[in-house]
Amino acid sequence: MTKVEFTNLDKILYPEGRVTKAQVIQHYIRMAPRMLGMLKNRPIVLTRFPNGIDKQGFYEKDMPLGTPHWVKTFRKYSETAEREINYVVCNDLDTLVWLANLAALELHMTLSKMDEFEKPDLLVFDVDPEPPASMDDVVDVALMLKTKLDGLSLKSYVKTSGKKGLHILVPIVREYTFNQTREHVHQIGRYLARESPVVVSEFSKPKKPGTVYIDYLQNSHGRTMVCPYSLRATPRATVSMPLDWRDVKKGLKPEEFTLSAVAKSESNPWKGMLEDKQKL
Asked: By residue range, what is the domain housing residue 206?
């Protein structure tokens, strides 16, 4: 029995596939066993589309008006907003279902937990193509990156971003600052840029057509990453899907990981990920 009072379950949130709010809620209920461990004790930021993705949505850091008393929150001063922010923390199924009922289609999580907010426990390599670079180019760069991380004895995990790129994550011990982890990712990106003319990892350089950008700035304090299994506001209702590295090969089509397709997935390639606490 849930604490959530559902509203407008028949509302179409994804017009192209006629996906309703009820189907969005069902997706998050199915994925909850895989999502809640990753979300636990992490402040999250929401992207909400109460009138569907074909209407204007909005990005929400502060807890929504009318947040129930049983929803856990985390209060932190934001230098960019110059005020205190009350972030939602999604530690249980009721909160996840409540967010889905709010049409919070995208859930973006921090790379640190609220008890040590200044110390990340994840590194993320955000790998994005600049057209006409393709997903095959992203796959090539992702495999180069895995080889480099393997050489550093760092176990990595990969997922689709739910849009055009891939995210490669490395779980780490909470001993480093965001400055240190960002610089670590930057140095690896620069190494790959020397190895391949396709790779760009300098924020100061414009994104040239046909290149693949490794965004190290995602490892800055306060930045977020879309949560594994989160929906994205795309016409086909795509999902940010964890993958087995064996599936990262030419011909990979992230757009095929949709709400309906993911519902049939039984494998959990990220099982045990959070136990892999690694030193840099």
From this structure: 122-219
Q: Residue 46: which CATH number? A: 3.90.920.10
Do 29 and 99 share a structural domain?
yes
Name the residue with tokens 């995210």: 167
Report the distance separating Cα 168 and Cα 158, nearest Å.
Answer: 4
pLDDT at 2: 83
Write down the pTM of the prediction.
0.95
Instruction: Based on the fold, state whether residues 102 and 81 are members of the same structural domain.
Output: yes
Long-range contacts at 198-206 (CB < 8 A, ≥ 24 apart): 198/133, 198/137, 198/140, 198/141, 199/141, 199/144, 200/130
pLDDT of residue 106: 98
What's the rounded Cα separation, in Å, for the pair 199 and 28?
35
The answer to whether the CB of 266 falls within 8 A of the CB of 48 is no
Mean pLDDT of 200-206: 80
CA distances from 218 to 1, 45, 256 (A): 38, 14, 25
Burial bucket for residue 12 (CB in 10 Å: 0-12, 13-18, 19+):
middle
